[in-house]
Amino acid sequence: MDTPNKILIVDDDRDIRNLLADYLDNNGYSTITAAEGNAMWAALQNHQIDLVVLDLNLPGDDGLTLCRTLRSKSSLPVIMLTARGEPLDRILGLEMGADDYLPKPFEPRELLARIRSVLRRTQSNAHPHTGEALQKLKFAGWTLDLTARHLIGPDGMVISLSGAEFRMLNIFLEHPNRVLNRDQLLNMTHGRDADPFDRSIDIQISRLRQKLREDARSPQIIKTVRNGGYVLAVTVAVEQEA
């Protein structure tokens, strides 16, 4: 029997923590709860967590700070919650590396759907290419490690990617020198969950360019095609294990 995915719920509202934990437990997940950042780090250290549901408004370090710190260390999927529904909060959450975002109040079944979607995308990209021997994709001096799910720079430095960033970069590497518009990228990354007004594509590409040390005014790896979309304008090589 498969081990259920373990979800860490970080929210300072005890009622919300208990409600979400009960709901997710009843729908096939295993949950752990934390009320603030220190408890979150302890849970991450002591348990094998598959996804974090992280509230934005927390005592001490807020959710944006925690998400940014977590993202610098790990590609663990994060869904951010907030009582504020302003677009700026959503953009900030995505810029900090969250994989998805859900404003309060919300129905638990909506969160369940988001969790399933994020886990499905994350797990389906664990081995996105055919053949288990395939491990790395090389481009412009960079390497995307498909097993570890991180970038390796030309200088050998390892750079962590969020789940969303990993999926986005992997899509470009699977379609080199092909112009992909925002609708195509949304469908490839979010499928039926795509929002036609979603700005996450531009945010994720901006973050990828930063991690690829691109000049924002004249990027050479992921280029913008006016009225067209984006294109990975370099050659991609596949490295397989012997």
Task: Give a verbal description of the structure.
This protein has 242 residues and is an alpha/beta fold. It is built from eight helices and twelve strands. The strands form three sheets. It has a five-stranded parallel β-sheet, sandwiched between helices. The chain has a five-stranded antiparallel β-sheet with strand order 9-8-7-6-12. Strands 10-11 form a two-stranded antiparallel sheet. The two termini are 33 Å apart.
The averaged pLDDT comes out at 83
The level of helicity is 25-40%
Specify the structural class: alpha/beta
Question: What is the H/E order?
Answer: EHEHEHEHEHEEEEHHHEEE
Low-confidence stretches: 126-133
**Any idea what the radius of gyration is?**
18 Å
Major sheet: 5 strands, parallel
Number of helices: 8
Please give the order of strands in the largest beta sheet. Answer: 2-1-3-4-5
Distance between the termini: 33 Å
What topology emerges from the helices and strands here?
Layout: E1 6-10, H1 14-26, E2 30-34, H2 37-46, E3 51-55, H3 63-73, E4 78-82, H4 87-95, E5 100-103, H5 108-124, E6 134-139, E7 142-145, E8 150-152, E9 158-160, H6 163-174, H7 182-190, H8 200-211, E10 222-225, E11 229-232, E12 236-240
Parallel strand pairs: 1-2, 1-3, 3-4, 4-5
Antiparallel strand pairs: 6-7, 6-12, 7-8, 8-9, 10-11
Helix pairs in contact: 6-8
